[in-house]
Design brief:
357 residues; mainly beta; Immunoglobulin-like; 2 domains; six-stranded mixed β-sheet; five-stranded mixed β-sheet; 19 strands; globular; binds 2-acetamido-2-deoxy-beta-D-glucopyranose; binds copper (II) ion; oxidoreductase; copper ion binding; repeat; secreted
């Protein structure tokens, strides 16, 4: 078939305009809320998951996309799923808080969430929004910049979702039911976790410690999410400063800091440049608990993961991937050091911040 130049031009314009102006896509997800067997700390339990995954699936969307999620409840509990931080413009009924915007999805039923992600880009997350099911039903929700838009910082080599959580050996619904019955405090979690793993300071966990592989000289975007049920957390990486570039899906003025702090529900994107000596470094999170009335119990052991410098075989400076033992944990302020935490949060600035408040 022969096409005139004019016809070719029309076709080219059609494809180009599609590429640039109608790039918004529909992300269809089919989620089954179901039991899955998971072992941590040498305890195996049947927990409530999305599609048998713990932590749950990471959702990747591009700003402007429409998300359609068919959630089907195959467990005996009532369930809802909340898109934490998504603005839900004109789609409040898709938001998920139980008895606020919807009745629970009962056993055997489905609910289809449909919403457009607009005016936001960065890291958010999703989790259950009924009773304590969020302890095991959670995952990252990542909004890529629109096609053609770039980050307001130099593009990282890659990004790593880092989802902080809590693990109970017992059934979490028993934990909250017992606390409500007695009127007392709840049993604190048995471990803090990074991407569902307690890390090597906990019993029975060392083999499964999460490892993030990096190449010396490259810069990485860490998408840190506090999906813990109750605790505020410090997060840092030994020997590396972090540059905060986004919080709760809003870009910030770049800000250099040795550690970050997140309350449950908060997310923070940081850049990390792997410019230290080739080796392995601890990534860790531990509790910030400033209660003035005296110590509230909390898990005392930090959750850890490993930042692992991988040496390419063409790098003649190093002959092998290191096997040196991990050094120290990152240094955090004291568990109740409110002043340091105020300093951290007080230094956050929006991109448009110029002077004053
Ligand atoms: C949602 O999933 C359920 C269970 O697979 C199915 O029966 C139902 O038709 C789906 N709903 C839509 C709108 O696709
Ligand atoms: C589940 O939700 C239904 C509808 O709101 C409610 O009638 C029922 O009591 C709930 N079940 C439990 C165990 O909370
Ligand atoms: C909470 O901890 C107490 C004391 O260890 C224990 O007896 C109880 O069984 C725990 N509750 C649950 C629901 O696991
Ligand atoms: C590991 O197990 C020992 C023996 O049961 C216990 O004393 C210790 O507290 C456990 N460590 C952690 C981090 O839970
Ligand atoms: C990191 O690299 C090691 C080998 O050095 C490999 O065994 C491991 O699977 C890698 N981890 C990830 C998450 O890719
Ligand atoms: C981290 O930043 C502090 C303050 O800007 C600086 O003193 C320190 O040398 C930096 N550490 C690294 C590993 O870059
Ligand atoms: C490592 O990178 C950070 C962030 O770009 C920078 O602040 C720091 O000075 C660098 N350190 C070295 C030793 O090059
Ligand atoms: C080897 O080390 C030299 C000097 O520190 C550095 O300039 C060079 O980039 C390194 N080569 C590689 C492949 O990392
Ligand atoms: C280090 O590990 C990486 C990933 O497993 C591998 O590609 C590379 O060849 C290894 N380098 C050396 C020097 O053994
Ligand atoms: Cu939430």
């Amino acid at each position: 078939m022969f096409l005139t130049k004019a016809a070719l031009l029309v076709l080219a314009c059609f494809f180009l305009s599609n590429a640039f102006y109608t790039s918004a896509a529909t992300v269809n997800l089919d989620w089954k809320i179901e039991y899955t067997s998971v072992t941590r700390l040498c305890h195996t339990k049947s927990l409530i998951s999305v599609n048998g995954q713990f932590p749950g699936p990471t959702v990747y969307v591009t700003e402007g996309d429409t998300v359609i999620v068919n959630v089907t409840n195959l467990v005996s509990n009532n369930v809802t799923i909340h898109w934490h931080g998504v603005r839900q413009l004109l789609s409040a009924w898709a938001d998920g808080p139980v008895y606020i915007t919807q009745c629970p999805i009962q056993t055997g039923q489905s609910y289809v969430h449909q919403f457009q992600v607009t005016g936001q880009r960065g890291t958010l997350f999703w989790h259950a929004h009924i009773s304590w099911l969020r302890a095991t039903l959670y995952g990252a929700f990542i909004i890529q910049p629109k096609q053609g838009a770039s980050y307001p910082f130099s593009s990282p080599t890659t990004d790593f979702p880092i989802v902080l959580g809590e693990w109970w050996n017992a059934n979490v619904e028993d934990i909250i039911a017992e606390a409500l019955d007695s009127g007392g405090g709840y049993n604190i979690s048995d471990a803090l976790t990074i991407n569902g793993q307690p890390g090597d300071l906990y019993n029975c966990s060392q083999q499964d410690t999460v490892t993030f592989n990096v190449t010396q000289g490259k810069t990485y975007l860490l998408r840190v999410i506090n999906a813990a049920v109750n605790f505020q957390l410090y997060f840092g990486v030994t020997g590396h400063n972090l540059t905060v570039v986004e919080a709760d899906a809003e870009y910030t003025k770049p800000y250099n800091t040795p550690y970050i702090v997140l309350a449950p529900g908060q997310t923070t994107n940081v850049l990390l440049t792997a410019n230290q000596t080739v080796g392995q470094y601890y990534m860790a999170a531990s509790v910030f608990s400033p209660a003035p009335i005296g110590p509230v119990p909390f898990p005392q052991t930090a959750t850890t993961a490993i930042l692992n410098y991988v040496v390419s075989s063409s790098n003649t400076n190093s002959t092998s991937n290191t096997t040196t033992s991990l050094g120290q944990l990152p240094t955090f302020p004291a568990y109740n050091d409110l002043q340091s935490v105020e300093t951290f949060f007080g230094a956050l600035r929006s991109q448009s911040y110029s002077k004053g408040y």
